[in-house]
Structure formats: structure tokens, C-alpha cells
Amino acid sequence: MSSQRWRAALPAILMGVGLLAAWELTVRRFEIPSYIVPGPVAIGKALVVDWPLLSGSLLATLRLTLFALLFATVGGLLAAIVFSESRFIERTLFPYAVILQVTPSVAIAPLIIIWVNNTAAALVLCATFVAFFPILSATVAGLKSADHNLTELFELHRARRWQTLLYLKLPAALPYFLSGLRISGGLALVGAVVAEFVAGSGGHGSGLAYRILDAGYQLQFPRLFAALVLISVIGVAMHFLTSFISYLCLRSWHESTLVRER
Amino acid sequence: MTTFANIRGLGKHFADGTVALADLNLVIAHGSFVSLLGPSGCGKSTLLRILAGLARPSSGTIEFSQGAAGRTDAPPSVGFVFQEPTLMPWATVTQNVALPLRLARIPRDRASQMLHTALASVGLADFGTAYPRQLSGGMKMRVSIARAIVMRPTILLLDEPFAALDELTRLNLNQDLLQLWARDRFTTVFVTHSVSEAVYLSQKVFVMAPRPGRVTGDYSIDIPAAQRTEELRTSIVFNEYQREIAQHLRAGAPA
Known about the structure:
The complex is a heterodimer.
Chain A: H1 3-29, H2 40-49, H3 51-85, H4 87-102, H5 105-115, H6 119-143, H7 148-156, H8 161-199, H9 208-217, H10 221-250
Helix pairs in contact in A: 2-10, 3-4, 3-6, 3-8, 3-9, 3-10, 5-6, 5-8, 6-8, 8-9, 8-10, 9-10
Chain B: E1 3-13, E2 19-29, E3 33-37, H1 44-52, E4 59-64, E5 78-81, H2 93-97, H3 99-103, H4 108-121, H5 137-149, E6 155-159, H6 167-184, E7 187-192, H7 195-201, E8 204-209, E9 214-220, H8 236-252
Parallel strand pairs in B: 3-7, 3-8, 5-6, 6-7
Antiparallel strand pairs in B: 1-2, 1-4, 8-9
Helix pairs in contact in B: 7-8
């Protein structure tokens, strides 16, 4: 990072340090017991002491989130292409897709856990379900967004259907797809946490949400907060990952990446 | 002079009852530069779209002397320039111009040769790797023209291509278009609402009137290609043509 970027980030860093310090001081000054609110130092200690346990959970939740995002991306993209290529299929299926989308996934999660025997598969299915729809609806909208005159130009040159899809519709849908991806990246994590809460299965390979439940039962609040911090870390990582993918795809041509000098 | 397209009794109405064209007759000579001139709503763009095969006439016929695949009712290979540059923003200048070659799956060697010719003929040889957002309006229009001529079409159709550009850019592009036409002699149909642009470019100007869209007059512009330079714009001949056609347009327009 250049010194200029450090300077730009400085207020946010100072703000964070200040808040943590105030938190720690408040906890010490009023002698708040750690089973109500642990201070940052206690949480940091828990992160170190419980790292063998937490790191396994971190990996489990991270893996679950990434797989869910991957399946949601592939599935959403394929479904969107099928919808845009066949008006009939779209008219038949889209209303049901909307019903599924507006049904809170938290309500469906217990059913999936019951119906699917393999816990790992059930978790991925749950989280995928939550992350799927933003990609589907954004890509469907994007595939329809191609410029009318360009569409006519393709017609004029007697383009085949696959050519129009590959050279016109998919590139035109890319910015839409990517904003769907950014939303789904966050939702995949939400889905993963919800699925883990509902499944609630123990063992060494279980995720951060289970650690939160477990630490709560045992009144191990510093560990609970440590698990929470790690979930936030995954969330931030997903945000940067999807934003970076988006930047890589759009930087050369899209208006949103244009930097104007003033 | 051989006929390129013979349009007889052409009519077009839309579902909402608008009559865009009614009993329109005109002949386009092979290799000629023709302008369709008229106020908005006179159906000139509709006629252009029918010529391109993008819209169907409601009545009447168009006969092409060299139609596609031996047919006389379908247009031969067409180059089309829209009012906006209509470029793919995600593709470079080269990729945009190469689009028709790619769609027709022209073999690589021949395609790259045709591509270079087209880019060079509009002065874009050095801008191949630029993206549309980096180009000015005039440059984007050059890309659009290069794309229209890259397949060496037998007919080039332009729908008010320079209407949104500034005066100086428009004059330059007029000149470039004339040079292209003088070199390749594709039959060109140019839609415009500018009298001076029509006179400057065309061998033949068809004046159209609205409600319903029809041709009310045609003017042959007998100015040799060699004399169509910037000096022409201030000459007496040029102004005579302009005055005559503008008068005709005014007479046809209800105030």
C-alpha cells in the first residue's frame, strides 16, 4: 500500500483501535463479568487458546460457504441461460422459482436436514439454496439487457443462436451476474451459518455456528465471541473475493471502473 | 445504369394503425449513392429497415437484382450503420469491427486481412486495442462504419449516422464516407434530415413527406466526385441545389 492509501485508511483504523480500547476499559472499570460481555483482550486470549478447536471450525464453515457459492453460481447461471433461451420453460418455472425465493430459507432448513441423510450434503444444499436466487434473477435480467440495435445487428448478420448467446447476451449479462455474485457471496455465509445452527451436530469437523451454540451452553463467552469474530472474517473475505473477481472482469471496459481525473 | 433495387407500391403500417409508408415507388441504381431526405416521421428509417430485411413490408414488393442466394426478395449482404455507434462496450475496436467476420466464421487469415483493410480505411489502424469508452463520438462512429464495410457488402445502409455529432466531426466524416464510396462503390442508402448533407454526399436525393410516408420528389445531383470537396459547400451550384430541395421540403410540410 502506498503512503497515500495508508493515510486514507487511517481514520477507520484509529476508530477501530479507539472503540476496542473503550470497550476494554469499560469492561474493566465496571467489572463486567465475562459471561455477560467479555473484553477484547479476553476474546483475543480465547482465539489463541482455543485455536486448535476454532481453526477446524473456521475451515469447515469456510469450505461450506465456498462450495455453496460455487454450486449457487453454476446452478444460477445455467438456470438463467435455460430461462432466457426458452420462453416456455421460463413461463412454466419462474413463478415457482419466485415462491421458493420468497420463502425464508431458515424455515426450509430443518426439512432439508431431516430429508437428506448425509449431513455434509444437507448443509451444502441448505447454504446453496440461500445463495442461489440472487444469481439467478440478476443473470436473467442481464441476459435480457442486451442493446436492441446490437441484437438487430446480430440478426442482420444471420447469427446462430449460440453465437448471439456467447458473443452478445452473456457479455451483456456479466455486470448483472457479478452484482448477483457479490450478494450471493454474503448470503452463502448466512446460509452456511443457518444450516449449521439447525443441524447442530457436534464433533471436531463442525462449523463456527456450532461453536457459538456450544460455547453459549457452556457459558464460554470469550470463545463464543471469538467464533463470531471468525465468522466476520469469512464475511469480509467473501466480500473482497467477489469484489475482486468483479473488478477483474469489468476493469477494462465497464463504466463503473472508470476513474475520471478532476 | 443497372438497377440495384426496384421498390414498387411499398406500404407499411403498424399494429397501432400508424401508416409509416404508403404506395412508395423508387429505383436505386447499382453502385449509386442515394439519400432519403425528410422530416421526422416520414418513414425514411422504416424504409431503410425494410431494405435491410429487419422489417417486413405490409404491401408491395422490393426486387433486388442480386439478391441473397439467388432470391430477388431478400437483400444481398448488408452493412448497416445505426444512428448511435451501437458498439459492444466489452470488446475492443478490433473485436467490434471483426464481429461480422466472426459471425460468418470467415477463416482466420482472410478475416485478419479484411479486418486490417477496414480499420485502415477509416483511420483506425492505431486504435485496435482501445475500448469504446476511451473513444470520442466521432471515433466510435468510425468504428461503426468500419464494422459495416468489413464484409465488403453490396449495399451500405446508414440511418442518420452523423446526426448526434458536432459540426466539424460531421464534415470530416462526410468527406471520409465519400472517399470510401469512391473507392469501393457499394450501393449506399443514406438517411438524413439535413439538406446540405444530402446534396453534398448523394448522386440522387429522394425527398419524403410524412402522414403517410411517401416519396414526393427526386433530385439528381450532377456534381462529379472530384468536385465534392470542402470548396463545394460555398459554390453557387451547391447552393442552388440546396435552395431548390429546401423549398420542396417546405412546400410539403404543413408549416
